[in-house]
Amino acid sequence: MSEKKIKIVKRAERGNRKPKKSKANRKLASDMVTTVTNWVQEFQQRQRAETAKAVESLIRSRRQQPNEA
Description:
Layout (H helix, E strand, L loop, with lengths): L10 H6 L6 H42 L5
């Protein structure tokens, strides 16, 4: 059999190996979340306005038609 070296990682060393998140990365992520949140809010406002306009149009057109009873 071939002999391979096995590296033993102690618990103290394992804790030090985690990469730390920089504040720049957090700021970038926060900016992206803010941007997407704004897009969603704008989309929802546009949808509400279009829906209100469509309902209003339907109500007006229904009032203008004579009753068919």
